Fold this sequence. Notes:
Elements: E1 4-14, H1 21-32, E2 42-53, E3 58-62, H2 69-76, E4 84-89, E5 93-96, H3 109-119, H4 124-138, H5 153-164, E6 171-175, H6 183-198, E7 203-207, H7 211-217, E8 220-225, E9 228-233, H8 235-253, E10 260-263, E11 267-275, E12 281-282, E13 284-286, E14 291-299, E15 303-313, E16 319-324, E17 331-334, E18 337-345, E19 353-363, E20 368-382, E21 402-403, E22 407-409, E23 414-416
Parallel strand pairs: 3-7, 3-8, 5-6, 6-7, 13-20
Antiparallel strand pairs: 1-2, 1-4, 8-9, 10-20, 11-12, 11-14, 14-18, 15-16, 15-17, 15-19, 19-20, 21-22, 22-23
Amino acid sequence: MAIIEVNHVTKEYSLGQLQSLKHTIQRAAAKLRGQPLPERPLFKALNDVDFKVEAGEVLGIIGHNGAGKSTLLKMLAQISVPTRGNVKIHGKVAPLIEVGAGLIGDLTGRENVFLNGAILGMPKAEIKKKFDEIVAFAELEEFIDTPIKRYSSGMSVRLGFAIATSVDADILIVDEVLAVGDLAFQRKCFDRMEDLIKRQNKTVLLVSHNIRQVQRLCTRVILLDHGRINQDGAPQAVCDSFYEQSDAKINANAAHAKARTRTSGDLELMELGFLDQNGQKTDHLSFNQDCMIQFKIRVYQHLSDVTFGFGFHTTDFVYLTTHNSEEQLHINYLPLGEHDVLCKIARLALLPGIYSLRFGVTAGQAAGAIFYGENLKHFQVVGDLPVTVREGFFALDAQWLLTDGKDTYSRDIAVAGNPMS
């Protein structure tokens, strides 16, 4: 039997501003007199959502902002009720939604552990048993008897996460809480979630904009779009579909994206762009094909010992690679005027998706920065992937071999000798 049943759930909200007391009284009087009331527009945050979750399943829920993800989780956590349809939960639920919001500022960390643990359904004896573990996980041993109002926001959410994940529940409902605290604590949160999923076999519903985490943690993913289920299936297929939607949206907004630049004033970047393997200008590069990047610059001051560099980054500024010119171009002197800077890329290994370009110039023996810019230009990599490539940012030029100590076997041939030869 399914541990969670969502049966044709619709959630509607009235749109419009709050009314004054006078209008509220007038509406109430009209209702009592049997007069028709003007209809207020309704917004369907969820629209006939229907699915089931089996025990031990890890379900990811993804979608763009406003798709209905958090509304759905609040239904499942019984924080809100559907306008139509129903939700059936068979087991104890631990909602990790707005972690830290239930902490009371005037109480100490210790007092909040006992209070929030009780609210989440933990007996006092169990809270005492787990108290040291909760405090240690939150890394708050020195501050546990300090009032919460003296905590930073990061300290508060760390304590909230530690309390919530210590509850012995059948179902965990998680809403963007793996991004709490600093990077080291985020790693701890992720490891704890993996432990709950893989070792303790909890049923988990996870909402996150970090699609890579969803792919790694979940056994199934639902893609919501404007309150409806757009897709429900294997994580790789559903996440790929979401990436395609996101790429199209990013591409449409690319013209409005702002570059981040800083310059000494000695050099200006006038133009930049891509050329495909046929030398034609393009913003759509082909996966695993040759291409070229072209930068047009104008120099206002004589420059010496010049180095150029470019790099690729994701739209959320994850730096993927950087390539500098110092080992291939030895520019002792760069005169005034305009210059074209070209860099040829053999067999572009970036996987299909939307990326952005950064570019920099240094000069002088101290390699001082003359120009640097990122998010300078969005571009799309397109093309079909080989079956050996599954996920990530790059395709490796690699080959699998099998050896029994004497012979080495590849897909097409069997040769004797060293497998690394």
